[in-house]
User: What shape does this take?
Amino acid sequence: MRFLRADRDELIRNPEAYLYTVAVNLLREQFVLDRRWGTAVDATESPTDPALVNFRTPEEEVDREDRMARITALIEALPPKLQAVLILQYRDGLTYQEIAERIGVTTHTVKKYVMQGLALCRHRLSRIEGRAP
Assistant: This one.
């Protein structure tokens, strides 16, 4: 539109360069407006920038670290087989079949170990937090 609004076409010696200059100026103007007013964001869309998706406030990060420390302590207090099964499933993402093959038990036993490990963790956590077991 700016190109078409130019008053005197004969003053534009190089239309391509003029068009480029207009485009650069439009980008600069948009940048200034975005900085002044902020960019319009559709709040219903999920962010795609990894820095925004994984962003945590300092308080959330401290809370996360505290929870991880408590979970680690709970898991470390478990018997070795229950510990191994929970780590292989939740940290490493293995299936019951893969865990069974790795530690040499049946998938039924793996399921039993997962349930026992989670139950012990819940029980110990409820005692720590002062709730009834």
User: Anything to note?
Assistant: The mean pLDDT is 79. The first helix runs from residue 2 to 5. Helices lie at 2-5, 15-37, 50-53, 58-76, 80-91, 96-103, 107-128.
